[in-house]
Amino acid sequence: MAELATIDGVRTLAVDIGGTNVKVLVLDEGGDAISQREKRPTPRPAVPAAMIDLIVQLAERQPPYQRVSVGFPGVVRHGVTWTAPNLHPDWRGFPLDQVLEERLGCPVRVCNDADMQGFGAIAGEGLEMVITLGTGLGSALFVDGILVPNLELAHHPFGDGKTYEQWLGNASLEALGEAAWEAKLREAIELMRRTFNYDRLYIGGGNGRLLQRGDVPDDVVLVDNIAGLLGGIALWTGVVGTRLVRAPHSVGAYCPVPAER
């Protein structure tokens, strides 16, 4: 692997853990994909041991890499997972970065999955918000390219005693049908605009496709779900566009990954 790094630059294995599927691909030093995205169903029960085994299996099928970025569907603090509402309670307090480093034999950095999708989508200017629509609802907020971590909008109230995730998660889509679910999503977009006063809202995730690209407000951008993997490069470069993702003053309180070890 060291020889490969000298020839081709450092490669990053990007991993997107979801409540329905786990996806991987390899990025070159500039953040471009150099392998085909591969996905497998999320194991059930989605306990840490089964998830780690699946990630290792998927990693073995990819080209060589020297480091790993992981997007995880829950709160992550310094590589440790603290919530995983769509996976399993055993993820609370799990040192995902350390365990994967031991299994994969290279450095690993972990952040929230919506944060990682945001890194792959935002322009790095102004107040930018990201939501991902899949099994649940992920959310991220950036100010001039700097992450405001662990927003977890999914669990905030959104009418009739339900949360955003209860209204906009996949279970609600199946119960309401596409038309009623989309109407609820548009209602949520308007509420988020008034609450956060964002400059741009990026919508991704598997169910984001249900919004027609030509029928969204000017300040809403629909992004391909692959952004959740492409954003993995930012966990190592610290740059989104021309703006710092991880400014020196932000290490610790505002940083999704620990300082260099």
Name a few traits of the molecule.
29% helix; Nucleotidyltransferase, domain 5; 23% strand; 5-stranded mixed β-sheet; 261 residues; 9 helices; 2 domains; alpha/beta; disordered C terminus; disordered N terminus
Summarize the helix and strand pattern as letters. Answer: HEEEHEEEHEHEEEHHHEEHHEE
How many DSSP E strands? 14
User: What radius of gyration results from the CA coordinates?
Assistant: 18 Å
Q: Treating each run of at least 4 consecutive H or I residues as one helix, how many helices? A: 9
Tell me the helix content: 25-40%
The CATH homologous superfamily of the largest domain is termed ATPase, nucleotide binding domain
Stated plainly, the CATH topology of the largest domain is called: Nucleotidyltransferase, domain 5
Q: Mean of residue pLDDT?
A: 87
Structural class: alpha/beta
C-alpha geometry = globular
- Write down the domain tally: 2
Oligomer: single chain
Low-confidence stretches: 1-7, 240-261
How much beta, percentage-wise?
A: 15-25%
* Biggest sheet descriptor: 5 strands, mixed
- End-to-end separation: 20 Å
Mind telling me the CATH class of the largest domain? Answer: Alpha Beta
Named at the architecture level, the CATH assignment of the largest domain is 2-Layer Sandwich
| Strand order in the sheet with the most strands | 3-2-1-4-7
InterPro entries: ATPase_NBD, ROK
Protein name: ROK family protein
Organism: Schlesneria paludicola
Family: Belongs to the ROK (NagC/XylR) family.
